[in-house]
Amino acid sequence: MGRVISVVALSALLAFTAGCNKKVSRVDTNAVTDLSGKWNDTDSRLVSREMIDDVLTRRWLTKFNRAKGKPPTVIVGTVRNLSHEHINTRTFIRDLEKELINSGEVEFVASASERDEIRSERRDQDLNASESTRKAMGNEAGADFMLKGTINTIVDAASGSQARFYQVDLTLIDLESNRKVWVGQKKIKKTVEKSSFGF
Predict the structure, then answer these.
(1) Is the per-residue pLDDT at 8 higher than 60?
(2) What are the phi and psi torsion angles at 162 (to 5°)?
(3) In the CATH hierarchy, which fold is given to the domain comprising 38-193?
(4) How many other CB atoms are found less than 10 A from the CB of residue 166?
(5) What DSSP letter does each residue of the chain carry, written as one string?
(6) Which of 24, 28, 54, 63 makes the best surface tag, with the fewest CB within 10 Å?
(7) 71 falls in which pLDDT band (50, 70, 90)?
(8) What pLDDT, on the 0 to 100 scale, is given for residue 84?
């Protein structure tokens, strides 16, 4: 009897293990893969593209170009995650930076953390590099504008379904006057149907 139970238990274990095997497939990095309904790489990419397209078509840019005769210099500041879920805002900030730089409409300067590393390198050059190749301190380009913002969410759940609402607010601020020259907003709404395994 004990041997029969052992065989049955082993068969059940093998069947369970076989059911747990994972299948991994490579997909195009631009493909939409919305598995959980949560914020994902597609949301980050599409929101950053749409919002940068919007900010670069507004009057602040032509006014600055006319007044200064050169493209503005921009830096991306903090994007705060005020949502109920974990969102990697660093990848969103990188998407914003990529869209801004690749537009060719603005100049771009390094972030605060990047500047620390670069300044350390210049200090090292000051001691160790030849005079002809040394990069001097005090010649950094200052930003004219800072882009910063927030990500918020609202979740509504009932009868085995969820509605997830994301709102991204970005503001472009003149660093000299603190004037807000552009305010952008993008909203995303997703519905998630509950499966037999839950959310």
Answers:
(1) no
(2) -130, 145
(3) Rossmann fold (3.40.50)
(4) 21
(5) -HHHHHHHHHHHHHHHHHHT--------TTS---SSSS--HHHHHHHHHHHHHHHTTSHHHHHHHHHHSSPPEEEEEEEEE-SSS---HHHHHHHHHHHHHHHSSSEE---HHHHHHHHHHHHHHHHHS-TTTPPPTT-PPPPSEEEEEEEEEEEEEETTEEEEEEEEEEEEEETTT--EEEEEEEEEEEEEE--TT--
(6) 24
(7) very high
(8) 87
Q: How far apart are CA 183 and CA 166, in angstroms?
A: 17
Pull the structure tokens for residue 112: 């605060």
* Average confidence (pLDDT) over 119-140: 92
Report CA-CA distances (Å) from 14 to 8, 138, 197. Answer: 10, 68, 21
17: left (phi over 0), alpha (psi -120 to 50) or beta: alpha
pLDDT at 199: 47
Q: Enumerate residues 6+ apart whose C-beta is below 8 A from 140.
A: 109, 115
Give CA–CA dist 99/115, Å, rounded.
Answer: 20
